[in-house]
């Protein structure tokens, strides 16, 4: 039987997460997107804590424009929070999503904000 779209994404997610991990010095930037919103978190996997988070639901993020433009704004917001917390280098976790469109826009926004990955 063929795998559903969600099952394929979860399989890819497990494969990627087996190769990358975040720490307090080099946290993991995890991205989740739904049909309406996009979320980003900086995670320290060694301690199991979230160091910073940003989403398209926050008031500080410009909610006007296309979903791709909003994703870029979320990337800039997470970069600003990371730099305020003293984090400059990260590991990017696309969470099983294709690195294209909104996920790529978020990554580019984070790079513009000053994060290195």
UniProtKB/TrEMBL annotation:
One GO MF term = structural constituent of ribosome
From the UniProt record, give one GO term of the biological process aspect.
translation
Q: Which Pfam families match?
A: Ribosomal_L18p (PF00861)
- Keyword Metal-binding applies: no
Task: Report the CDD domains cross-referenced here.
Answer: Ribosomal_L18_L5e
Alphabetical list of SUPFAM superfamilies matching this protein:
Translational machinery components
Q: Per its UniProt record, what InterPro entries does this chain match?
A: Ribosomal_L18, Ribosomal_uL18_bac-type, Ribosomal_uL18_bac/plant/anim
Question: Coiled coil located at which positions?
Answer: none
Q: Which UniProt keywords apply?
A: Ribonucleoprotein, Ribosomal protein, RNA-binding, rRNA-binding
Q: Which GO terms describe its cellular component?
A: cytosolic large ribosomal subunit
Q: Would the keyword Ribonucleoprotein turn up in this protein's UniProt record? A: yes
Reported function: This is one of the proteins that bind and probably mediate the attachment of the 5S RNA into the large ribosomal subunit, where it forms part of the central protuberance.
Subunit and partners: Part of the 50S ribosomal subunit; part of the 5S rRNA/L5/L18/L25 subcomplex. Contacts the 5S and 23S rRNAs.
Per the record, the similarity remark reads: Belongs to the universal ribosomal protein uL18 family.
Q: What name is this protein filed under? A: Large ribosomal subunit protein uL18
Q: Name the gene.
A: rplR
């Amino acid at each position: 039987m063929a795998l559903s779209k969600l099952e394929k994404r979860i399989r890819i997610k497990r494969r990627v997460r087996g190769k990358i991990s975040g720490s307090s010095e080099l946290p993991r930037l995890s991205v989740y997107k739904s049909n309406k919103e996009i979320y980003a978190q900086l995670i320290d996997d060694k301690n199991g804590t979230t160091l910073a988070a940003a989403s398209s639901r926050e008031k500080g993020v410009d909610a006007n424009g296309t979903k791709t433009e909003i994703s870029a704004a979320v990337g800039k917001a997470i970069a600003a929070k990371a730099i305020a917390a003293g984090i400059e280098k990260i590991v990017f976790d696309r969470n099983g999503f294709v690195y294209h469109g909104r996920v790529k826009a978020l990554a580019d926004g984070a790079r513009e904000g000053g994060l290195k990955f």
